[in-house]
Structure formats: C-alpha cells, structure tokens
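Subject: sequence -> structure tokens, single chain

Hey, anyone have a minute? Need the predicted structure for the following. Not urgent.
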Amino acid sequence: MAKLLLKSDEAADQLGISRTHLYQLNASGELGPMPIKLGKCSLWSAKELDAWVDHRCPPREQWVQMMEEEKK
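Reply:
Had a minute. Here:
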C-alpha cells in the first residue's frame, strides 16, 4: 500500500530532487504543497505532490488559489 504522507527525504525522492532542494523550494514558496506538521515532523501529502506536478509545479501562491477554486 502506498504511503499517504511522506517524510522530507521521501517527498524529495518522489519529486526527483534532493532533500535540501525540497526545503529551499518550500522556504521560497516555489513548492506549492505545504508540509503537514505532526509534532516536530514535517510530512507532505503524496497525493498533493502528484497533483502539483500534474499541474506543472506552480508556485505556492498560485497553487493555493487553484486548490481554493477547486473546492468551490
């Protein structure tokens, strides 16, 4: 069974980038999906990462707007 939430190294692997690059993209707002904080652990939704890539990796501001519009 596929994981629903990914640790940073798993999320980076799924995107084909390094963990350092994942954190840089997240800090700069270039990574659309936000991590889910569980205690001290940051986890990313595997489904949201897939959807973000399917939408051609828009920056966070645009990604959040797109997700809000889909909920309507």
